[in-house]
Design a protein that fits this description.
InterPro entries: HAD-like_sf, HAD_sf, LarE, Ni-pincer_cofactor_biosynth, PGP-like_dom2, Rossmann-like_a/b/a_fold. It comes from Kribbella italica. This is ATP-dependent sacrificial sulfur transferase LarE. GO terms for molecular function: sulfurtransferase activity. This protein is α/β, with parallel strands linked by helices. It has four domains: about 130 residues, Rossmann fold, CATH 3.40.50.1000; about 70 residues, Orthogonal Bundle (DNA polymerase, domain 1); about 150 residues, 3-Layer(aba) Sandwich (Rossmann fold); about 100 residues, Alpha-Beta Plaits (2-Layer Sandwich), CATH 3.30.70. Helix content is about 45%, strand content about 10%. The chain contains 20 helices and 15 strands. The strands form four sheets. The protein has a six-stranded parallel beta sheet, sandwiched between helices. It has a four-stranded parallel beta sheet with strand order 11-10-9-12, with helices on both faces. Strands 13-14-15 form a three-stranded mixed beta sheet, covered by helices on one side. β10, α12 and β11 form a beta-alpha-beta unit. α7 crosses α8 and α14 runs parallel beside α16.
């Protein structure tokens, strides 16, 4: 059965986008000093006896509720207006971020998620606080309290809402989001738990670790469910960390007898990759096949323009389809992950998609870091394997690709890697610029190794000149040299 004929288990992704909402006061920021200063000013201006210590001990409800405690009903609107008038000058600079805020926002970014703030505070004041503290939040929303916060959370499809108040729990549950409570506001951890919080943390310093574990679990469950929906699979198995994890996951989900690992053999595959790939496939108990691919016969591949990877991936999938048909296998899967999908320069992904290949890792929103973490927890030897793109990625765009050029790069990289083995080198790239070569190694090693020795090793393989890149290894650095990259995105 053709891969393209298989019904899709999901049209795009198997898990919703990660969108995390936060309350503001006493969740992200300690706004008590600034708010108290504003209330002190109102007390001085009006002569009202306001217990400002009490006011800031119960932040959370709408301003009108608190104002009604201290002023007659017919004055509340006017006092709210005055409060908001003086707030920017007296409350913003006195507020501080609570511990763990920056790390929490960064953890969401690392998981390719979006952030929002949903607060009962006046929306312009919310924005002033975020701007003043430089907090990178995608969507600030104000003037919502309690269950009404669910309106904004649902609108932006938030899956998690973090707050310090019982009203924040109401807002999360109204939106069907996970209610994460932090005990940094007026309620204790026990009170928040008893009220119905799904997760209770002491403060935001505990949030990144909880989030990483929670999201990884959700995404792994989605991955296994997607894989289990296919009776059999061919996995395009390069031997790298991503395809190795996918292969192991497929074997777990549907049984190794229903999985075939296919490693394409061509001049673009580094010689050192084939034996470890065979050993890994044997270790997870799946059949391993090594079909030859002939991307070198495709003019678009040899020409080596910005869309070279399109022709390579087209050749790969078209080679694997007859194997899938021969074994009666339902689908061909590639190791494309969530980071690949947004990298902005992946013409190969388009070629595989057009030919019906599935991308279970991407569909589960698994990032490269999550794949390595899960691989480590499963005891896979590839968990810390350095990235190893095909040899053609080392040839400068516009330089026509030949088997001899690929072999020269392979020999040069093996020589550099062997020389640097005592230093614990992870990443080595010899970039073929035509007659010269650029040598990229781990940035941490640049000051510790003899660059002249590396240059001589590379020149010995047939390059007229070579130099060590002072910026160190950078994945996809050849794309930096491409003219009009947008043409190939």
């Amino acid at each position: 059965m053709s891969t393209a004929e298989m019904p899709s288990a999901a049209t795009a992704t198997d898990v919703p986008e990660l969108v995390v909402g936060f309350d503001l006061d006493m969740t992200l920021i300690d706004s008590r000093p600034g708010i108290q200063a504003v209330w002190d000013l109102l007390a001085a201006e009006t002569g009202a006896e306001i217990d400002t210590d009490l006011v800031v001990s119960r932040l959370g409800p709408p301003l009108t509720w608190e104002m009604a405690h201290w002023f007659p009903a017919d004055q509340v609107d006017a006092m709210v207006a005055r409060y908001r008038e003086v707030y920017p000058a007296h409350a913003i600079t006195g507020s501080l971020p609570l511990p763990g805020v920056a790390e929490s926002l960064a953890a969401i970014r690392a998981l390719r998620g979006r952030t929002m703030v949903v607060s009962a505070k006046y929306t312009p004041s919310v924005k002033l606080h975020l701007d003043h503290l430089g907090l990178d939040v995608d969507e600030p929303v104000g003037d919502l309290h309690g269950a009404d916060k669910g309106i904004a959370l649902r609108e932006h499809q938030a899956t998690i809402y973090v707050g310090d108040h019982t009203a924040d729990i109401d807002g999360a549950h109204a939106a069907g989001a996970v209610a994460v409570s932090v005990a940094t506001g007026p309620f204790t951890a026990d009170e928040l738990r008893a009220y119905g919080a799904d997760v209770v943390l002491n403060d935001l310093t505990e949030f990144p670790a909880w989030l990483d574990a929670y999201v990884l679990e959700q995404r792994l469950e989605a991955l296994m469910a997607r894989l289990a929906s296919y009776p059999s699979l061919v996995v395009a198995f390069s031997g790298g960390a991503d395809s190795a994890f996918l292969l192991a996951a497929a074997a777990r989900a549907i049984g190794p007898a229903n999985v075939v690992a296919a490693t394409a053999v061509s001049p673009s595959l580094p010689v050192a990759e084939l034996e470890p790939a065979a050993r890994f496939a044997d270790g997870v108990g799946v059949r391993h096949v090594t079909p030859p691919t002939h991307e070198m016969d495709r003019e678009g591949y040899q020409a080596n323009a910005g869309d070279r990877c399109y022709f390579c991936k087209a050749e790969l999938v078209e080679t694997l389809q007859p194997i899938a048909d021969e074994f009666g296998i339902a689908a061909i899967a590639t190791g494309t992950n969530a980071d690949d999908a947004i990298a902005g320069f992946r013409p190969g992904i388009r070629a595989a998609f057009e030919r019906g290949a599935i991308t279970p890792l991407k569909d589960a929103r698994l990032t490269k870091a999550q794949i390595r973490e899960a691989s480590h927890s499963w005891g896979l030897e590839t968990s810390d394997k350095p990235a190893a793109a095909c040899l053609s990625s080392r040839i400068a765009y516009g330089v026509r690709i030949t088997p001899n050029l690929l072999a020269r790069v392979d020999r040069a990289e093996q020589a550099v890697r062997a020389h640097l083995a005592p230093y614990g080198v992870q990443n080595v790239r010899v970039r073929d610029l035509g007659q010269s070569a650029s040598i990229e190694i781990d940035a941490a090693l640049l000051g510790a190794v003899d660059s002249a020795a590396l240059v001589e090793l590379v020149r010995a393989e047939g390059f007229l000149a070579a130099a060590v890149d002072p910026r160190g290894f950078r994945s996809g650095s050849m794309n930096e040299r491409l003219k009009e990259p947008e043409k190939y995105r």
